[in-house]
Design a protein that fits this description.
mainly beta, 2 helices, about 90 residues
């Protein structure tokens, strides 16, 4: 039997697309975002997977996946497929 992740990836049942927000980031996050060496796998509107680089706020610790001035708040790393960047 395959892994549980493969099952959910292949069944349309558990796939949900988080919307990229164009709202302004909180004040502390606008000035203190830093690279954290990770990317989140995101399904774009055409259904293909893309990697969105993640940044972490040095003041409050919030994480965001960013793309072209828009963002997705990453409140739990367990909700997303995360890719670590090797240096």
């Amino acid at each position: 039997m395959g892994s549980l992740g493969d099952y959910f990836r292949n069944s349309g049942y558990a796939i949900h697309r988080a919307a990229l927000r164009s709202d302004r980031l909180p004040e502390c996050c606008r000035h203190s975002l830093a690279e954290c060496g990770m990317s989140a796998v995101f399904l774009d509107p055409s259904g293909s997977e893309i990697l969105l680089p993640m940044k972490k706020c040095g003041a409050c610790g919030r994480r965001y996946a960013l793309s072209d001035g828009k963002y997705i708040p990453i409140d739990s790393l367990l909700k997303y497929r995360i890719v670590l960047h090797s240096e």
